[in-house]
Amino acid sequence: MMVPFYHRVADSHPNPWTISRARFARHVDHCLQHLQPRSLADVQQLVRQGNCRQPTVTFTFDDGYAENCDFALPLLLEKQIPCTYFVTLSNLIHQQPFSHDRQRGCPLPVNNLRQIRELADVGIEIGLHSRDHIDFSTVNCAAELDLQIGQARTELEQRLGHPVRQFAFPFGMPRQLTAAAIAAVDRAGLHGFSSAFGGYNLPGRDAFHLRRFHGDCDFNRFRNWISFDPRKVRSEPTIRYQRIAEGPRAADPAPIAAPPLSPSAAIIQLPGATP
Ligand SMILES: [Zn+2]
After folding, report:
1. pLDDT (tens digit per residue) in 258-271
2. CA 169 / ligand 1 centre spacing (Å)
3. With 90 as the cut, is the pLDDT of residue 254 above it?
4. Measured in angstroms, how far is the CA atom of residue 261 from the centroid of ligand 1?
5. 87 CA → ligand 1 middle, Å
């Protein structure tokens, strides 16, 4: 089950976390030709059940960029493709551009609360991307983790009027996925967390951790992810943590019934962190 993540779909101010409208539309068309669109909740269910007869795709977005409401999200709605949209609470509330954009001298517009409410009302799932887009590799204090995750979730739900069930780690690389931060996701009662280091959600794996890959501007790299490359599974880092209710969890069980290697499979690559 494939879960690409995007940040910003726009034709202005290109940067490593922006993809053009035309390229995004190409991704959507390609996915619709080869994969069945499903929601993130469906992906978790299929992973838990341990059987998935047909490869699926779920589109996700991180941060909360205003321009996504101009093209990308209307396109997904028009084509009835499920989507989970992870927003950063403080930037949303205070209408403050992201620090990674301000540092580049390009303070791009962020979504406002009215937009996010409208997206939730039309069926787009709103998830949490932390309160302040912090780097969780630098935080160990439980109170700070709860402020960034549990309390932020409660506040986002109150402001939205919709439940918030999913969390996506800013940067989403293995160093951010600490046992302490994942425990805070668990304490908050969230249904799962999404990473961003590149991975597949294979039947029988841990369903609390949803693995995503970058919706890359390079179409060949994107197509390689979509066509499934088992070498990427073998090279994946192990994320260790303990669920409150489930006890110790180590490495996942070996993946079962992996699809055949695509002839277009490229070199294994662990991508760099994006916001
Ligand atoms: Zn981010």
Report:
1. 333 333 333 334 45
2. 7
3. no
4. 31
5. 8
Residue 106 Cα to ligand 1 midpoint, Å, equals 16
The pLDDT value recorded for residue 246 is: 64
> Which residues lie closer than 8 Å to 88 by C-beta, 6 or more apart?
63, 64, 98, 110, 129, 130, 131, 132, 133, 170
Write out pLDDT tens, residues 84-132.
999 999 999 999 999 999 999 999 999 999 999 999 999 999 999 999 9
Is residue 259 in some structural domain?
A: no
- Ligand 1 centre to CA of 16 (Å) is 12
- Number of domains forming the structure of the chain: 1
**Spacing, Cα 171 to ligand 1 middle (Å):** 6
Query: How many angstroms separate the alpha carbon of residue 53 from the centre of ligand 1?
Result: 32
Q: Which stretches within the chain are classed as H helix?
A: 21-34, 40-49, 72-78, 89-94, 99-102, 113-121, 142-146, 152-160, 179-187, 219-226, 230-234
In a domain, 254, yes or no: no
- Whether 68 is in a domain gets the answer yes
Read off the pLDDT of residues 13-23 as tens digits, 9 standing for 90 and up.
999 999 999 99
CATH, residue 223 = 3.20.20.370
- In a domain? residue 256: no
pLDDT of residue 233: 86
H or E segment to which residue 192 belongs: strand 192-194
232 CA from centroid of ligand 1 (Å): 23
Q: What is the mean pLDDT of residues 158-163?
A: 96
Domain span holding position 165: 4-249
CA of 8 to the centre of ligand 1 (A): 11
